[in-house]
Amino acid sequence: MGEGIAQIFELALVYKLVLIVLLTSFMVITAYSFLNTRVKKKQEEYARTVGFLGIGDGQAAFATRAVIDEYDGRSYVVPVATATFVTLFGMGSLLFASDLVGPEASDRNVILTALFPETETGRLDGLRWQSMVVLTLAFLGAYIWSCHNIIRRLVAGDLAPIEYYNTALRMIFAPLLSLMLAFLFEATGAGDAMRETMPVIAFMTGMLPGAALQYLQDRFLKLLEFSEDSAHSLSLRMIEGMNRHHEVRLGEVGIDNGQNLAEANVVELILKTPFGPDQLLDWIAQAQLYVYVKDEIRVLRRYGVRNALDLYEVATDEARLAAIAKDAGLNPLALSTVARRIGSDPRVRQLIEFRRRIGLDAGQGRAQAREGATNGADAGTVPTPTIAASVTAGAERRPS
Q1: Is the pTM value of this prediction over 0.90?
Q2: 361 in Cβ contact with 332 (< 8 Å)
Q3: How high does pLDDT run on average in the chain?
């Protein structure tokens, strides 16, 4: 009987170790897969994009060089090793939690028990287990979110080395953040009521650490009875088509709110992010309108005015602009002022020009397809504009 139990324990140990190795190897496997399958394709996509936007040859060459430098295999070694080590440590803590909590309930632990009274032995023992559960489940939530994010970027051809540093930081930061939440609930007397939901809260903190951090910040300011007037935050969540993954990716290039997005350089975002030109043009145009009208952008959307380009077109008809303002309950003078400012903004005119070039490039492709069909091209082949033709067409469209 004793030998059977010992074999089961040995089997369980082997299973845990194999599971840790498999889950930890995810970081190395994804980096290897990206470097061997996606980098070359990304270079081709950049060349094609800068071509139909009419960007000069010098900038196009710089973009290609930037891709090669950004995704050099040697730059992945340290970030991937860091993420792998943090994953190994976290998975070990998750699967061997009972061994790490400690056999003595009265033992003090600066992370697991903080400053709660050591005289209450039973409560202290429960707190130690609660803290370990919170830490490990928050790590698990951060790991799952990070794996999903890495896969998304692998498919999109956007798995830069910095993402592995971000992954490691998330898997460290989220557990500590969830532990602070648990300590806050205990200190405010809500610990007993939230005991059963604490694991769920910890897991979701790993998935959404930003929301947990905002909650703690709000409670901290309220604790200090500190408040101050502040400007509109211009959250990116107001932009249509924007999700949490998009926000995180834009945040990595310094775009944290609507004002940053409205001021962003379209070409730079095309080169530094995986988003298509059409998508970026729409987001930036939405942000430019959002900066002016704030939350009233919701009202304007009901009348088909989604972004600055839409308002620019509507502004040519003053009667229609006034009718929209009246029907939507907006100040006609304010809306007219916003329309004039948008009309005189050189960034808006640049977006209009880029959108025209994208439309012309798509139209050129359709025209070539029709010409090929007329000339008896193979039925299964649809001609597409070459990169060289796109660059030439872009150069011809640029003003002299």
Answers
A1: no
A2: no
A3: 77
